């Protein structure tokens, strides 16, 4: 598939403003209460890096990552979730926020949520930079949501197509040519 970067859907300034708001919301919800952020690699790392810097120093933050894949190098999910890297810490008895770049089919989030619930997390919430409309397998509300977007394949700000375009500072539609 040949691709071209389409129009900017969300500007860098809009993203930064919304992440600051999400950081304040998390800070208020977890004031002086430790919270563990679990980033879902690879797409969430840019969002997570900015999000933790937006959380007040009054809120103790622990961070770990899981690498979970359902896309490979395609623009649609394979329908199968593979855990490629698991957590290095225990989430038992902890307040946890799962940090996702995008919730599309919800398959990855549904799978990770159930894994962490089974490992004894005291509470589980979700922070996602983007959410697409549709029939998500994850049927709970997203607690900290950046933006709802149209059902288009997007790249930038950590999101990729075949490992490209993660370094874009904004969110753009990837068009087929």
Description:
By secondary structure, the protein is of the alpha/beta class. The chain has one domain (12-71, 80-152): 3-Layer(aba) Sandwich (Rossmann fold), CATH 3.40.50. The chain is 23% helix and 33% strand. It has three helices and nine strands. It has helices at residues 12-29, 45-54, 107-118, and strands spanning 3-10, 35-41, 61-69, 82-85, 95-103, 123-131, 144-148, 154-155, 171-176. The strands form two sheets. Strands 4-3-2-5-6-7 form a six-stranded mixed sheet, with helices on both faces. α1 crosses α2 (45-54). The longest helix has 18 residues, at 12-29. The N and C termini lie close together (8 Å).
Helix-strand sequence = EHEHEEEHEEEE
The outline comes out as globular
- CATH fold call: Rossmann fold
Average predicted local confidence, pLDDT:
90
**What class, by secondary structure content?**
alpha/beta
Topology, number of strands: 9
Sheet with most strands: strand arrangement? 4-3-2-5-6-7
Count of separate DSSP helical elements: 3
């Amino acid at each position: 598939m040949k691709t071209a970067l389409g129009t900017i859907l969300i500007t860098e300034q809009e993203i930064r403003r919304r992440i600051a708001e999400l950081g304040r919301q998390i800070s208020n919800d977890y004031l002086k209460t430790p919270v563990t952020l679990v980033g879902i690699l690879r797409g969430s790392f840019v969002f997570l890096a900015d999000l933790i810097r937006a959380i007040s120093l009054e809120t103790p933050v622990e961070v770990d990552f899981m690498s979970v894949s359902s896309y490979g190098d395609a623009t649609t999910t394979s329908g199968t979730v593979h855990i490629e890297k698991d957590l290095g810490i225990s989430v038992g008895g902890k307040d946890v926020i799962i940090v996702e770049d995008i919730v599309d089919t919800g398959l990855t989030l549904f799978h990770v949520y159930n894994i962490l619930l089974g490992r004894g997390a005291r509470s589980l919430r979700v922070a996602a930079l983007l959410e697409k409309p549709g029939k998500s397998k994850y049927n709970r509300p997203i607690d900290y949501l950046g933006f709802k977007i149209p059902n288009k394949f997007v790249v930038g700000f950590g999101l990729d197509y075949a490992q490209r375009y993660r370094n874009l500072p904004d969110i753009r539609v990837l068009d087929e040519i």
